[in-house]
Amino acid sequence: MTPTDPRLTPILSVAGLLGLWVFAAFLTADRSVLPQPWDLWPPLLRELQSGALFKHLFATLLRVIWAFGLAMTLGIALGLAMGRMPRLNAWLDPWLVVFLNLPALVVIVLCYLWIGLNETAAIVAVTLNKVPNVTTVIREGARALDPALDDMAHVYRLSWLTRLRHVILPQLGPFIAAAARSGVAVIWKIVLVVEFLGRSSGVGFQIHLYFQLFDVAMVLVYAFSFVSVMLAVEWLLLQPWERRVTRWRHA
C-alpha cells in the first residue's frame, strides 16, 4: 500500500482516535476516571477466562438478531404497502410521524409496564422503536419504483410473487440495505438501554452493574467488546451485501 492508498485511511483514523485516547488518559492521570488502552487488557482477559464476557455478548447479540429480523420484516412490508397505496399511506402517515418522534425510553418503559420485565417486552420495545425508521426508508424506495417496469410486469402477466422477486425487490435493494445498516446501528444501542433498565443479562446489564461500582475500566471493556462485534457485522456482512445488491446499477 502506498501512502496515498485509500485503504490506509481507516487505519490512520483508528490510530488517531487511539492516540487521542492515550493523550486524554495521560492528562487525566487517574485510572479510575480514564484508564489507558493497555489497562483494559487484565480485566478483559479475566472476563474471557471466566466466560462472563461471552455469555453476556451472546445474550445481547441474540436480542439484536430477534429485534432486527422483526423490525426489518414488519418495516419492509409496511413501507412497501404505504409506498404503493396512497390511500393507505394517507391513513397511516400520522401514526408513522407519532412513532418516529416518540422517545425510545418511553416505549421501553411502557413495554416493561404493560408486558412485564421479560424477554418479550425487551424485544417488542426494540422492534417498535425501529419499525418506523425502516418503514420510512422503504416507503421512499417504493415511491421511486420505475412505473415502466410495472407496466412490463402487467403486460407479461407475471404473478405477484414473481413480480415481487424480479421487479420490486431488486429496485428496493439499495433502500433495504440502507435500512439494514442504519437499523443495526440503532437497534444494538436501544438493546443496551433495554438491558440497562430491566434485564439480568447482556452487555447493557453489565454496564449498569459496573456503573454502580464506578468501575470505568469494566464499562469500557464491555462497551468496546460489543462495538467490535457490531463493527465485524458491518464490515463482513452488511457492506459486502450492500455492494452485491447495488451492483446492477453499475453493470
Instruction: Give me the number of helical elements.
Output: 10
Structural class: mainly alpha
Name the poorly predicted regions. Answer: none
Provide the CATH topology: MetI-like fold
What's the CATH H-level superfamily name? MetI-like
Note the quaternary state here: single chain
General shape: globular
CATH architecture: Orthogonal Bundle
Beta percentage is under 5%
- Main sheet specs: none
Distance between the termini: 28 Å
Q: Level of helix content?
A: over 70%
**Strand element count:** 0
State the name of the first-level CATH class: Mainly Alpha
Q: How large is the radius of gyration?
A: 22 Å
Number of discrete domains:
1
Average predicted confidence as pLDDT? 85
Helices and strands in order:
Layout: H1 8-28, H2 41-50, H3 52-84, H4 86-101, H5 104-115, H6 119-143, H7 147-155, H8 160-198, H9 203-212, H10 216-245
Can you walk through the features of this model?
The model has no long low-confidence stretch (mean pLDDT 85). It is globular, with a radius of gyration of 22 Å. The protein contains ten helices and no strands. The protein starts with 7 loop residues before the first helix and ends in a 6-residue tail after the last helix. The chain is mostly helical. It has a single domain (40-250), classed as MetI-like (MetI-like fold), CATH 1.10.3720. Helix 3 (52-84) runs parallel beside helix 6 (119-143) and helix 8 (160-198) runs antiparallel to helix 10.
